[in-house]
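Hello,

Following up on my earlier ticket. Below are the two sequence lines again, exactly as submitted.
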Amino acid sequence: MRFLLRRAGFYLLTAWAAITLNFFIPRMLPGDPVQSLLNRYQGQLTSEATRSLYVLFGLDEQTSLWQQYLEYWGNIFTGDFGLSFTFFPTPVSEIVAQSLPWTLGLVGVSTVISFALGTLAGVIAGWRRGSWADTLLPVTNFFSAIPYFWIGLIAIAVFAEAWQLFPASGGWDTALVPSFSGEFIGSLITHSVLPGLTIVISSVAGWILSMRNMMVTVSSEDFVTVAHAKGLKERTVMFGYAARNAVLPNVSGFALSLGFIVSGTLLTEMVFSYPGIGYILFKAVDAKDYPLMQGVFLIITMSVLVANMLADLIYAFLDPRTRREG
Amino acid sequence: MKRRSTFALLGGAAATALMGTGCGGGTASGSVLTVGMPNGPLTENNNPFSPTSASNSLGYRWVLYEPLAQVNLLEPTNEPLPWLAEKWEWSKDFQSVKLTIRDGVKWSDGKDLTADDVAFTYNLVKDTEALNLDAIPYKKATATGRIVELTFKSPQYVNQTRIIGFTPIVPEHVWSKVKDPTKDTVKKPVGSGPFTLSSWTSQAVTLKVRDDYWGDKPKVKEMRYVSYNDNSAQTTALGNGECQWSYVFMPDYKKVFIKKDPENHRLWFPSGLGIHVLFINNARKPFDDPELRKAMNLVVDREAVHKQGESGLYPLVESPTGIPSPVGDDYIADKYKNVKHKVDVKKAKKILEDAGYTLKGGKLETPDGKAVTMKLIDPTGWSDYLASLQIIADNLSTIGIKAEVDSVTVDDWNEKLFTGDFDASLHWTNTGSTPWDLFSNIMDGAHYKEIGEKASWNFGRFKSDEATEALSTYADTDDEDTRKKALETLQDIMVEEVPVIPLVAGPIGAVFSTKHWVGWPDDDNPYSMSQPTQPSSSLILTRLKPA
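Thanks for your patience. The regenerated structure is below:
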């Protein structure tokens, strides 16, 4: 119990620090949202617009930083992050709701696939050392060493332009309106094949590597030798005894990687014009859109924190040694 | 906790997604016209007054709502085409205008468009500072019968087309109920334009043609507006025919666009009255010397800036007055007609020699013996501007000026430009309906600020009472001849004192395909501005015919 309380205290403190930093960092960035907007429109907005834009964004009123900080906390508890400047006057929460599901869907599914595939391949590679399975590692490592946007661009050049098997950009066919129809879901899937595949290809090597190394360590342990000696089937020993124990670090790694789903998608969304949250954040930073930046950062910090907490709990549950009180 | 919030968000997205009425349909079908802009993600905001709305960014606000008149900034001296107003009459001093509103126009909800709606719209803009983006000093708008009278606090000669051509008219019966017009996202727009909103998704906005549109009914039955994440995604979509109308900067457009379908792929980038200039810091020594600036101007190779720097997309400005042709031909003073800028290193050297400068070992020195060096700055990533600066730097070396190109962050650049902490920088001017805007942006004393103070224009800190007076005379006078003289003075100053180096013009262009639709404005028939984000969209759509 004391262990749990200590962890809870730690997470509360971290959350406070993260949320506070989240308030101050955007305000310390140089630049001005109105000026960014005028640059974006290069001469299409007259400079007389400056004054009316300050009024529009509510930047003409002076409130102290302390007062803004208090308001910010109030807003967090009511779930109101204010109105975005870039997409004025759309509320930040609406923008997040519009883009987050696509990111979670695409990157979430790809992360799960990558984890499952990588872990399975790692089990086999670690169990059958010296066989063909050993070639998996250098091959996948090669792909993970290539910069992601390069893989993405090659995938577009080959599968979208030369062969035209899959669409090059977007989350679904622009002629369709999102709904739960077969046509739309089909379109959703064909549009996610290339971005999903490139994420899997570039991230699977990490899972294979860590799983293989743990398998190698575990398979020389006494309980594995005993299982062999009992005459159990090879497959049972491999999965039921060795892999089950070796998978622990991968599980906590997986929980952590879930936390980074939201933040780690900018490149995918840029290369494939995917309508997710990474690109929204990029736009927000570019436009000095404090409210939007704060909203997205908050989602990211919170998901990383929650994933960390889950990893902590799962680990403590799976491995009693970590809960031992000193 | 995390899972629940995720589900709530998913629910929200599905709900917004289902709000649309569903439009099935093949992508390549001839009756659909797809417009694309490289503007990245958008949110469901159709507010016609909001510069940040999707309807403004993609341009579809101008097929939902309409202006009183169709202004063609490509032929600024021609009278605008009557649209929601049948005719108008400016008072001699340009402090008021009487507009006759067209009869028989219906809003998309079936109600009649009246003069009261028009008066309401202008009063709304007047009363809401945040919506009055051009800061027009409205006094009031009153409707009597079919006549609307607009009055102003000062003469509006230079703003007349902005007033009647760029204000979307909205229905009073809808907008009078809007609580805060600056913060309303207008989910169900009611307008007088030829199309109505049919569905909105974060990837594409679909509009359907109206049966009861007052004007010529467009042959295009359905419009789709798509926002691509960046220029390269937009270019790919144009190249493979997925999108047929856009405005995007494409380096090497012949290869990436025209060549993909030479028969149908077209690019038309005529110049407006806005230009791109090299602002020189006149408040810094030795650039406060007009002789030096004149010499610099003489060696800059605009042809190279136009061709290599701007990929041939930004039209050349040949007149030494800075007024682009052919759009501004009528404004060019007689003595500068047919005068074209020519690179002349010899003459530049002569000017410098006469002014006491010396060339020592290929390096230019001022009369008091200081080497002339300068830094040309622009933001990182603005590759066309940086390439143009490189050309200018090379050109300047022919008269011994050591110029270096420096790229900085956008924020840093803003700060340096506004506070006068730079030697020279490439920047645009506004596009007006007269050359007043461009000259005012370059040298108006009304924008003059000391170094260290933030300037909103006249970044070069050019100080000339003569220029300031000519600008205010041009804007305020009711006499045609006085106006002409003032403009001539401004051109003289441009030529003799070279406050900035004019380079290329800002185009009002479009990229389009004639595969499914013909009748686009082009060199043979420049009846309208062709950018899909301009108020002329509804005019173009009524002229398009199936190929």
